[in-house]
Amino acid sequence: xxxxxxxxxxxxxxxxxxxxxxxxxxxxxxxxxxxxxxxxxxxxxxxxxxxxxxxxxxxxxxxxxxxxxxxxxxxxxxxxxxxxxxxxxxxxxxxxxxxxxxxxxxxxxxxxxxxxxxxxxxxxxxxxxxxxxxxxxxxxxxxxxxxxxxxxxxxxxxxxxxxxxxxxxxxxxxxxxxxxxxxxxxxxxxxxxxxxxxxxxxxxxxxxxxxxxxxxxxxxxxxxxxxxxxxxxxxxxxxxxxxxxxxxxxxxxxxxxx
Length: 258
Known about the structure:
Distance between the termini: 39 Å
Number of domains: 1
Number of strands: 12
Helix content: under 10%
Order of helices and strands: EEHHEHEEHEEEEEEE
């Protein structure tokens, strides 16, 4: 598969402390990037991560980091700037296919498009399953012994010979360690009168393209730079508050093994 992409910028912030910035955001100031300094080996050696890890990520493609919407200055400079295209193997220019007398390169072209993604302070830490809300006795009926058996019916829980003994099995499960994932600052509300939301910023996502079409190499320029076929569809994912749709994630997610 061949890809042709323009104006892609990535900024990643992760770890207990900000270690580095990979790339730069479109339109962001150099001063903000200068504040992110790499940690030395000595400094990294003093970090245990015992308090957990906070992950944040921002990704902007043909978009303005200040709004998450279309980068008008860049896209308006040339209508070909803000597009994303891809080509399926076997459809390249000059590759003869059965039934094609005059083979030409075929490209699926997303026109006048942008995408933005922001993930804010996703927390990862270690926890025992018994610390979860669903570990309470009110949820005892959710226990399913079959989920903890192998194909031969043997109980896989350590220290439990019979998974059918729900009381013993549940107590053992509550003692198991796992990785806990949650958004510590989650929250949001919706006002039906104004149709506006407040909060919902655990993750924000925007996706838009005005047109989508199959374009062909014409012998002078490649298909991904063409605009001869118009469009057969468009798509927008946004929010009443702005270009980016807000998402809130309530509750905790536990990952564990047995």
